[in-house]
Target: SH3 domain-containing protein
Amino acid sequence: MKKILIIIIGTTFFFNYCKKSNNEKNLTVIKPIKMIVNANGGLRIRKLPDINSEKIGLIPDGSVIESYGDVLQEMTIDGKNGKWMKIKHYDIVGYSFSGFLIHEDAFTNPIENEKTISGFRKLIPSFEKIDYNSEKDKRTFKLTENTGTVTFDSTIGIYRVISISPGDSEDEFNNYNFIFKENKLIFSDMNMFSLGLPKSFIKYKVVFQKSFGCATECDEYVQTENYEYAYISNSLMGETNYNSKTICSNKDGINNSCPVCSKSYKNESYTFQKKWIANLDGSIKEVIYEDKSISDL
Model:
């Protein structure tokens, strides 16, 4: 009797184990797809996939959510075509309409094939809110509705930096820079002078740089300008570094064909460094460091 009982228990355990294993094999694991909210005023999460269902949350425009697939048939809501989608935003799980969601790939991938402002705006809704003023734009070559090339497009966490050249290649003096937080524009140099090209993009800040120089028969100089934008403080810092090597040879130490020499001295080098806190329009708010020095060659 004892042996029979052991056999029955063993058989039952084995049967239940096999049944569980087979059920696990038949389970379909749905991997969430990251999507970005594209809805002015935010996107509602509802308890059920119905426009009249209870609202259980509101997701800010530009937020990243996790999608677990469509439900029901395609329909139109507020002029947008889509389906109800099961989603998760932080610890809230519910249903939202897919017509107001964009696949993350369309946001994080470089948009290098777009050549016009209209094209950029289709992918990044925040561009629609840019109030461009051509009179405030200090560039020599300006972006138009029919020109433009994305030369830099990178995302770190919730921040994204995009740079657009008015031509077909990088242009550090005429480049346009845009900084986004959760797909919302937080800073742009569009209505001022160009800050240059992105030099570094890290967790808390982005640094832009432009440099130029001259090598003539009487002088050699290099000037570099850096601008640093900090996300959290929404602040802008500026820095200029200038190095000049003067080799003028006439008796007065002045060569009228070279303006730089007329401001320097024969056989001397000149260096200049300046750092300042800038207003968000690029103008100097407060100089925090300035140093000039002349030394013999």
